[in-house]
């Protein structure tokens, strides 16, 4: 049986309304007691006197989707979760906007924090997403995740 | 029309022992393209990678290779077929 | 100087729209790179064949506000946070609705998970909030936090 | 009007050495009130608590006491003044 591919990549920023809708969808699940949500927001970092105004994200989609489904499987094996969702932006995301959304739900709270942390780290290390930090003067540099 | 011709050319190239390489992010900037067909002069992945390295002088850039969407931990002793997908990946920056 | 008391208690359930508004308010803060949100949702637990349909929350407000401001101070001392917010429902919260919302923001992600976990646990152990689990047949039992 | 009288009564009671006790959650259910004034027969917190325990037979219920919004770890050696706020608290259930 073909596994249903989940829509993980979102063109543009992830809106607070999208997050609210995701939360609302879980209110019919009566066995969930704890949600934990991680949001990555684009920072206006300063590099040598220049400010980051946006990050432009691209990805190697075929591999990224493969990796994300592996991460899903690993997370469900390791942690006692009811639901989990991962969303990542593609394209130009301005400073202050949200580009990354990890949503973990469980019966009890105990594991949701570490599960979220683990999933966030796996996405950062294993998923081929690339980011170009664009400065206010349109100059840019390629972003690299640090651990 | 032009696009169709391109596809036909690719098919011909495959027959002529060409292999497709994908480039991403900072690497695509260096190669100035997101994908290209290069002549498969050897079936060894290692040889093909050496060819890409020397063609674009990539040795100062930290990068990874993926074969059919899987990161290659070691390139030694791996053979490549015509339909395989090779990707050259700069450091990841998701999240 | 009098410390400004924050509005922590919300009459009724915490809506997904309220959470979205809280997130949106942080999009002007250009030094935030990571948010972590914990949400407590009322579970329809079964106890001896009867299902919980709602929890009715009350609190000892003067002491609860005092404790919550202590928790805020402790969290800012222990963790490198940009913002933090705690909200808790009072009154009748139905199964599936959200009754507890902890929102932590920081420049980098490293500490947000443990900060959230710590704040959630401090609220559960130290803040005088009381909960009556109401069953479908209107019978009830008093809830007690477990650790 | 009735409310005003109540306040005046409270004031009188305070003059007459009464102390106010607050009850919450499951405890308020046992005492059947959220707050009451009891006669301050002793200035020792311990004595007052013993009085509450025996008045309502609370010894089978796990509970905590707060004096002026602070949990009392030990009730020994603590004196209570007329304006102090004593609260009887069942197990917490927030979150």
Automatic annotation (TrEMBL), chains A, C:
InterPro entries: MoaE_sf, Mopterin_biosynth_MoaE. SUPFAM superfamilies: Molybdopterin synthase subunit MoaE. It catalyses: 2 [molybdopterin-synthase sulfur-carrier protein]-C-terminal-Gly-aminoethanethioate + cyclic pyranopterin phosphate + H2O = molybdopterin + 2 [molybdopterin-synthase sulfur-carrier protein]-C-terminal Gly-Gly + 2 H(+). Gene3D superfamilies: Molybdopterin biosynthesis MoaE subunit. One of its GO terms (molecular function) is molybdopterin synthase activity. GO terms for biological process: Mo-molybdopterin cofactor biosynthetic process. Keywords: Molybdenum cofactor biosynthesis. It comes from the Bacteria. Its EC number is 2.8.1.12. Pathway: Cofactor biosynthesis; molybdopterin biosynthesis. Heterotetramer of 2 MoaD subunits and 2 MoaE subunits. Also stable as homodimer. The enzyme changes between these two forms during catalysis. Belongs to the MoaE family. This is Molybdopterin synthase catalytic subunit. It comes from Christiangramia crocea.
UniProtKB/TrEMBL annotation, chains B, D:
InterPro entries: Beta-grasp_dom_sf, Mopterin_synth/thiamin_S_b, ThiS/MoaD-like. It comes from the Bacteria. Coiled coil: none annotated. This is MoaD/ThiS family protein. It comes from Christiangramia crocea. The lineage of its organism: Bacteria, Pseudomonadati, Bacteroidota, Flavobacteriia, Flavobacteriales.
């Amino acid at each position: 049986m073909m596994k249903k591919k989940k829509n993980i990549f979102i063109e543009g920023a992830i809106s607070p309304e999208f997050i609210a809708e995701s939360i609302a969808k879980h209110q019919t699940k009566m066995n969930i007691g704890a949600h934990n949500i991680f949001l990555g927001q684009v920072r206006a970092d300063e590099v040598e006197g220049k400010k980051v105004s946006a990050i432009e994200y691209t990805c190697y989609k075929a591999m990224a989707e493969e990796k994300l489904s592996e991460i899903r499987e690993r997370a469900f094996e390791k942690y006692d979760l009811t639901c989990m969702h991962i969303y990542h932006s593609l394209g130009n995301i301005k400073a202050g906007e949200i580009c990354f959304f990890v949503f973990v739900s469980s019966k009890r709270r105990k594991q949701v924090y570490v599960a979220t942390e683990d999933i966030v780290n796996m996405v950062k290390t294993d998923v081929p997403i690339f980011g170009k930090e664009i400065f206010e003067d349109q100059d840019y540099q390629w972003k690299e995740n640090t651990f | 029309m032009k696009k169709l011709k391109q596809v036909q050319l690719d098919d011909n190239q495959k027959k002529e022992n060409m292999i497709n390489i994908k480039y991403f992010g900072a690497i695509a900037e260096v190669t100035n393209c997101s994908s290209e067909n290069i002549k498969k002069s050897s079936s060894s992945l290692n040889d093909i990678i050496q060819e890409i390295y020397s063609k674009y002088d990539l040795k100062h850039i930290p990068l990874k290779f993926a074969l059919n969407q899987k990161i290659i931990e070691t390139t030694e002793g791996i053979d490549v077929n015509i339909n395989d997908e090779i990707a050259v990946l700069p450091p990841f920056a998701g999240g």
